Amino acid sequence: MTIFSFTNIRPPNAGGNTVVAGINASGDVAGFYEQSGTEHGFLYSTGNFTDFGIVGTVTGLNDSDQVIGINSGGAFIYQNGNFTYLNDPSGSSTYPAAINGSGEVAGSYKDNSGVNHGFIYSNGNFTNFDDPNAGIQGTGVAAINASDQVVGDYLDNSNVEHGFIYHNGNIIEISDPAAGSSGNFSGTIVTAINSAGDVAGFYFDGSGVAHGFIYHNGVFANFSDPGAAPNSGGAGTFVYGINDSDEVTGYYNDSSGVSHGFVYNGGTFTNFSEPYAGGSPGFGTQPTAINNSGQVAGNYQSAAEQGFIATPVPILGGSGDYDTDGDRNGELLWQNLDGTVVSWDMNGAQLASIATLAQVPANWQLAGTGHFAGAPGSSSNTDAIFRSDAGDFLIVEFSGNQIVANQMAGHVPTNWHIAGIGDFNGDGKSDVLWQSDAHDVLITEMNGTQVMVNQFIGPAPAGGQAAAVADFNNDGMADILFLTPGGDLVMWEMNGTQVAVNQTIAHIPSNWRVATTGDFNGDGNADILLSSETGGQVMLEMNGTQILVNQFFAQIPSNWHITGTGDVNGDGKSDVILTSDAGDHLAWQMNGPQIVSNQLIGPGSPPSSPPQGAQASPTVATMNGQGSELRGDDGASGPAPDSMLGVLRGADPHALDHLAAAFGHDGHFLL
């Protein structure tokens, strides 16, 4: 199973929706955005946007950053500031659908009767073609590979969809035998082809439910995401991209009508959602393409449509103080992309050594770390929990850099997921928090590798997602922080499996999320780090359910992401670990909301400069002594808005415009 970091794609001049059309081998993406009622094309490469003016649409790009689309001059290829127009002389309008590495474009043109026909454009010449079985709407084109194989689909005269491969004048029909043949949603739709000629797409069954497929040498391999709701009428599993390893990407709709992305590879699904995607019907995450590095590009819906890049990254084993050799400097436990599990022995931001601890099969994932065998500060070292794609979970106990126990602990259905690790009953041993796809919550109390209690707690507040497990009130028992679809932060202070306090502590806008938690000021209470869609970072220092400090402290570029926390220098204060899309790692050594050290870490560091802007902001805001307003360093202050306790003023113009801190008990969230 793969873990992704997300880069949000929104050009700085965007005033409305942003749409990403494709991704190339280098991870560059192209698309268009809305500004003042017009669409502008853009190319995004290594953190920089190139705007190439008003367009009607952008449809794709190749590995040379040639971008295709339509503007007032018609269909175009854009590269390095220059436009080449390719309007099929046989048609009244031309639609370029895809471009391969040689700059050959495939698409369709519309004749004077409104019928679509396929074409390949190469070096100024058009080769036009039609599927002979196409109905009155004609032939549509979706993709082209390096061998000039073109795929697309058509509606027959009974309004049933069929796919095809066109190559050198020959057409192979692609109709999944499981596809339905009647109704508004029926037939086979081809969306993508890789360099080997393997084809991906989806079909609608007889009930109108979509299912994915890969077509290889005349054989269909069909699949359906287990999270997809079996609703009729256009729901199901939709496939839009395939790479040369036959990894496919697309999205599925859950029972609430929310879309979620997936990568499917050899029978295994990795499901994901862009962290800022909306959770209401019609919202969600919709991938459109995948490159050979496994990077996924697509779009998500929240207040407006935005683009994203999802990059596979190593897994940092949870949140806490990692220490496998007992020196009290926090070690970092990683699962690399190749499945190796390694421990980085840290001395501050210096990497003292790396120890390879294990090789994990591709269907197992590092899901967190904790002290399952004993309390922190004792002779026990940090342990790890792993989860398989089949739902099994096991505990690995360490002594130094040696594995001393490796035991299967149980099996939990795959619609339940590990949401956090913490000591809920105060016995000094870590327990496991689970949350289901239906947002129910369950706690497994552990004694080493033994399951002692498996207790269903109930539904999460307002359909919320468990965002963190940490001890916010310093009572020795872990608590749970939820983020609801409406933006409320709700805290459950726990006493074992009992919810002792259930309180809404704040409201955050939809473009903010909980990035991580840790005790950043060393007072024994866990604090909360919030990240914005635009890279702003805000720290909430906590005392139970009370927000003591609410401070904007940093702005980071879109290609850097908060990975987790660990006390790398052993000072008793959590530090922040960041990872870039290029695979570099950075440690912020923290003193409350102040970054006291900003240093690249890891093998061969420094491989590049630290992210620009990853330092304390010159303008911050904190809660004043009365808790009735927020005051920035610029001296601005004022009365709190109705029903809110303050407005955050910081360097990030999008930072927590309305951070509400509700300090009373909210009976709406009582179980």
What does this protein look like?
It is globular, with a radius of gyration of 26 Å. The protein starts with a strand and ends in a 39-residue tail after the last strand. With 671 residues, it is an all-beta fold. The strands form 14 sheets. Strands 1-28-27-26 form a four-stranded antiparallel β-sheet, with no helix packed on it. Strands 2-3-4-5 form a four-stranded antiparallel β-sheet, with no helix packed on it. It has a four-stranded antiparallel β-sheet with strand order 6-7-8-9, with no helix packed on it.
Give the biggest sheet. 4 strands, antiparallel
The secondary-structure class comes to: mainly beta
Taking all Cα atoms into account, the compactness measure Rg is 26 Å
Helix content: under 10%
Q: Globular, elongated, flat, extended or rod-shaped: what is the shape?
A: globular
- How many E strands? 54
The proportion of strand residues reads over 45%
Summarize the structure.
It is built from no helices and 54 strands. Helices cover 0% and strands 53% of the residues. Strands 1-28-27-26 form a four-stranded antiparallel β-sheet, with no helix packed on it. A four-stranded antiparallel β-sheet has the order 2-3-4-5, with no helix packed on it. A four-stranded antiparallel β-sheet has the order 6-7-8-9, with no helix packed on it.
Which key features would you list for this structure?
671 residues; mainly beta; four-stranded antiparallel β-sheet; globular; disordered C terminus
List the helices and strands and how they pair.
Elements: E1 3-9, E2 18-23, E3 29-35, E4 38-45, E5 48-55, E6 57-61, E7 67-71, E8 74-79, E9 82-85, E10 93-99, E11 105-110, E12 116-122, E13 125-129, E14 139-144, E15 150-155, E16 161-167, E17 170-174, E18 187-193, E19 199-204, E20 210-216, E21 219-223, E22 237-242, E23 248-253, E24 259-265, E25 268-272, E26 284-290, E27 296-301, E28 305-313, E29 315-316, E30 332-335, E31 340-347, E32 350-359, E33 364-370, E34 383-388, E35 392-399, E36 402-411, E37 416-422, E38 431-436, E39 440-447, E40 450-459, E41 465-470, E42 479-483, E43 488-495, E44 498-507, E45 512-518, E46 527-532, E47 536-543, E48 546-555, E49 560-566, E50 575-580, E51 585-591, E52 594-601, E53 621-623, E54 630-632
Antiparallel strand pairs: 1-28, 2-3, 3-4, 4-5, 6-7, 7-8, 8-9, 10-11, 11-12, 12-13, 14-15, 15-16, 16-17, 18-19, 19-20, 20-21, 22-23, 23-24, 24-25, 26-27, 27-28, 29-30, 30-31, 31-32, 33-34, 34-35, 35-36, 37-38, 38-39, 39-40, 41-42, 42-43, 43-44, 45-46, 46-47, 47-48, 49-50, 50-51, 51-52, 53-54
